[in-house]
Amino acid sequence: MSPPSSGATFVLGGARSGKSHFAEQLLVASGLERHYVATGRAWDDEMRARIAKHKADRADRWHTHEEPLDLVGCLRSIDGVGRAILVDCLTLWVTNLMMGERDMEAEFASLAAYLPTARASLVIVSNEVGLGIVPENRMAREFRDHAGRLHQMIAAEAADVYFIAAGLPLKMKG
Fold first, then answer.
1. pLDDT along the chain (174 residues), means of 10
2. In the chain, where the domains are located
3. Which terminus in the chain has less CB density within 10 A, N or C?
4. 75 near 47, Cβ under 8 Å?
5. Predicted structure pTM score
6. Given 3.40.250.10, 3.30.565.10, 3.40.50.300, 3.10.450.50, which CATH number is that of 8-173?
7. Does the annotation list 141 as a binding residue?
8. Of these residues, 21, 35, 54, 146, which one is catalytic?
9. Is 20 known as a binding-site position?
């Protein structure tokens, strides 16, 4: 596995597919100063435990930035040559935007427009949520639809796109 060269790398896969580990390994191999942008919020005890485990796993090898809403602002503040930035993950960001009643299209467009300007090696992780059954409730369907549109926008701007299944990467673009 070789580190990203230039442009953003998008890593997409199902829950527990190995996508975050794959993304981390891409940036560890880069030898660059590593920054981890976490979009998750601790809404309950299970999520608090997951966040604590992720922090412990990364230990002091990563500079961690927790940003549930202003993802582009956070990326701009830490962007720079010689840095590697991992965003994990877009679907949690979509949830936060929905809960905050934000302008989804404007937020998505802002992120897509930022990607070609990034100077750091940037890897973005997200959950593929469109491969299962149609969700039974309106909010879940809206979430799936928002995530699908965002994924298309990010994949279009990314230099490299990987799909991860069972820990195995399939390079789809780049």
1. 72 94 92 94 78 72 93 98 96 97 98 97 96 92 97 97 97 96
2. 8-173
3. N
4. no
5. 0.92
6. 3.40.50.300
7. no
8. 54
9. yes
In single-letter form, the type of residue at position 90 comes to L
Annotated catalytic residue 54: yes
| Strand duo 83-88 + 33-38: pairing | parallel
Q: What is the pLDDT of residue 42?
A: 77
70 in a labelled binding site: no
State the amino acid at position 46 in one-letter form: E
